Amino acid sequence: MKFLVVVLALAVAVSADIDYETKRRALQNPDLYDGDMAGINGPFDAERNAIPGQFYRWPGAKVPYEIDSSLQSNTGFIQKAFQNYHQTTCVRFVPRTNERDYIRIFAGQGCYSHVGKTGGQQPVSLGNGCAFVGTAIHELGHALGFYHEQNRSDRDDYLTIYINNIQKGMWIAVLLLYVWWIDSKVSAWRLGRMGSNPDSVNERHVCNINTKCAQMFHIRK
User: Fold this and answer.
1) Helix axes 133-144, 76-88, angle to 10 degrees
2) d(CA 144, CA 36)
3) E strand or H helix at 213, and its extent?
4) Apex CA 77: angle with CA 73 and CA 78, to 5°?
5) Among 21, 99, 139, 149, the one annotated catalytic
6) CB 3.0 to 4.6 Å from 35: which of 28, 58, 82, 122, for a disulfide?
7) From the annotation, which residues make up the binding site for Zn(2+)?
8) What is the DSSP letter of 180?
């Protein structure tokens, strides 16, 4: 079976219509693992970069969702993120009817999501500084069960990390994950905390990560 693997290398690109610092801080919540992943208390190791276990998967690749009233006036970028998944994957985001497990997209404090299905109402925050298609794709990817691509155990085969350019306190962003924490049978979405992301560009806008290969390709499992 063929799975599409996409590197979102510019998922959170710098835009002229928003202050860069606001955008950077939106992805750097100090209370969350690596800035935007909720429910994780420490570093995990992974080979394919997806959380293991059937419990964390969305049945039938369908993800029911609700969009909170705090975002009702600005849902275009979310719908475009849904369309991206629908056009390139088997994942389908569907409006919630009476499903017990679903994601609730709201304008919280910055950008964040749990990793994989957690059960019940599951928050996905797209607050101030997060109203971009790439950012929405990124956080929805976490909700589907994927960690950050630059933490994969085979990361160094594809990326060059410039350690000296990493901001102080942000080294956790490039730690390699342990293989036993990953389901190796799941193809990985490449959730790029690369390009113009807080972890990959420091306060002097110096690049910390470069790709060594093409950003879009197919793999077979």
Assistant:
1) 60
2) 14
3) none
4) 85
5) 139
6) 28
7) 138, 142, 148
8) B
Looking at 93-158, list the stretches that DSSP marks H as alpha helix, in order from N- to C-terminal side: 133-144
**Cα–Cα distance measured from residue 189 to residue 217, given in angstroms and rounded to the nearest whole number:** 11
Structure tokens, 112: 């964040």
Over residues 97-140, the pLDDT tens digits come to 999 999 999 998 888 998 899 999 999 999 888 888 988 998 99
Give the Å distances, CA to CA, from 133 to 17, 35, 83, 186.
Answer: 14, 19, 10, 24
Place of tokens 């994942």: 91
| Residue 188 near residue 152 (C-beta atoms within 8 A) | yes
DSSP code at position 18: S
Residue 48 in tokens: 């394919």
According to the model, what pLDDT value does residue 145 have? Answer: 87
Q: In this structure, which amino acid lies at residue 20?
A: Y
Q: What is the pTM of this model?
A: 0.64
Rounded to an integer, what is the distance from CA 151 to the centroid of its chain?
Answer: 12
Half-sphere exposure (Cβ direction) of 199: Cα atoms closer than 13 Å: 27
The Cα 35–Cα 82 span in angstroms is 23
How does pLDDT run across 17-76, given as a tens digit for each residue? 445 555 555 555 555 555 555 556 544 445 556 677 788 899 999 999 999 999 988 899
Active site residue 139: yes
Q: Strands 121-126, 102-106: parallel, antiparallel or unpaired by DSSP?
A: parallel
Strands 102-106 and 62-67: parallel
